[in-house]
Amino acid sequence: MGHSGNLQLKVVNGDAGYVLEDVPHLTDYIPDLPTYPNPLQFNAAYSVVKQYFVNVDDTVSQKIVVHKDSPRGTHFRRAGPRQKVVYFVSDEVHACIVTCGGLCPGLNTVIREIVCGLYHMYGVSKILGIDGGYRGFYSKNTINLTPKVVNDIHKRGGTILGTSRGGHDTSKIVDSIQDRGINQVYIIGGDGTQKGAAVIYEEIRQRGLKVAVAGIPKTIDNDIPVIDKSFGFDTAVEEAQRAINAAHVEAESIENGIGVVKLMGRYCGFIAMYATLGSRDVDCCLIPESPFYLEGEGGLYEFIEKRLKENGHMVIVIAEGAGQDLLAESLQSMNQQDASGNKLLQDVGLWISHKIKDHFARLHKMAINLKYIDPTYMIRAIPSNASDNVYCTLLAQSAVHGAVAGYTGFTVGPVNGRHAYIPFNRINERQNQVVITDRMWARVLSSTNQPSFLSANELAKFKREKPSCPVVG
Ligand SMILES: Nc1ncnc2c1ncn2[C@@H]1O[C@H](COP(=O)(O)OP(=O)(O)OP(=O)(O)O)[C@@H](O)[C@H]1O
Ligand SMILES: O=P(O)(O)OC[C@H]1O[C@](O)(CO)[C@@H](O)[C@@H]1O
Ligand SMILES: [Mg+2]
Q1: Domain of life, per the record (predicted)?
Q2: What is the ipTM of this complex?
Q3: From the CA of 104, how far away is ligand 1's center (Å)?
Q4: Which pTM value belongs to this model?
């Protein structure tokens, strides 16, 4: 096997096209680090486990569908407890946890399980909660986290640590880490947060500090690539059903009733797509990845008229990032950004509701009754459901095992069902989006029976431009 790469990339090439995109280890820049036996082997709960520790050579394959002669492809290091650890646990570890970006169901569960994992599996009791996101490192007080403090936080929505956008000052953050003697940093957040985690890791490495940096991916939008799905996503999709049900009940109770539901999804339509497929009451799902138009043959107005004539009512689900080009045409574009530099979107749900009402009022041939439901924050401010709780537990424990073993500069997450350590650069190189030329979007179209709103030429263009998504869908 041959190694290649620089500070960022640790790539190992093997036989038959096998590629390991490995994560950094503290020993990459701190030679001769002493190691210690993993204390987990004395843990009563784990004594029944046949194979305590993950084999050092275990990797997780990114490509699950293979052909007889195809190369073995990209792999990631398998997550889990290691035989040797690089911290003299429990005394040496001083950990901290921070949550950044928007809320997401399960944040408190991940915090709880990092604290309980560190404490119960590795005997760590020095764990600080950073208050209010990245800027909390240098401008706020910290909170001492113990299993007792976090005991029932998973039953609450939000994050007990608070969160924020903006305020990432790398050198101030690393100064604070250094000054406080912190040597494990757990960073929970979305795409922006993981980019922030990558630069924190780089700065720590430049300074030669024995500090492990572990990212736990959080995004309600499911826009983080490589991993199967982000935590809280299922809970959000489930909660979205309540809004869709309400829209459906309202719409079918009145002549020519239309229920419009806006769901989150700034740049991608995963929530809208899964909520639509989960519901079966949705007649039209509009997402940022699939352009649509209103007027004329094959447009949205024509489809609404047809569906109302057929069924007497209809439900439209629209992701917040859908149709932004149309909004920009008809409204003056604001071009505003939030504190993290994310584009602030105009309310497409409200806009489309007005457009539909105006259109049918102008036509005079069909009186419609439109109800607009906007549950956007309700679907992310709730506690996570049971399966997300289990998922959060695995993420937290995998992150803890990795950091204690000396891995750093990684985001943890499931790849084809197996948890893996994924290098930051892989997580940060692109955003996950619905690929409308994949089967999952076709399933939506065939479930709603809506038009694709794409001409043959546009479809061909999409097929050329967008590679098939190997993970989601
Ligand atoms: N390129 C970057 N480099 C350093 N820090 C960044 C970068 N992008 C974003 N951040 C920081 O990460 C934090 C969170 O970013 P952001 O507000 O975009 O949310 P997010 O993590 O993407 O979560 P979500 O989009 O799911 O709400 C902010 O404090 C922001 O300053
Ligand atoms: O209003 P906030 O807190 O900035 O969050 C809104 C954004 O957060 C997200 O949930 C995640 O990025 C987006 O879908 C949404 O645009
Ligand atoms: Mg983001």
Answers
A1: Eukaryota
A2: 0.98
A3: 14
A4: 0.94
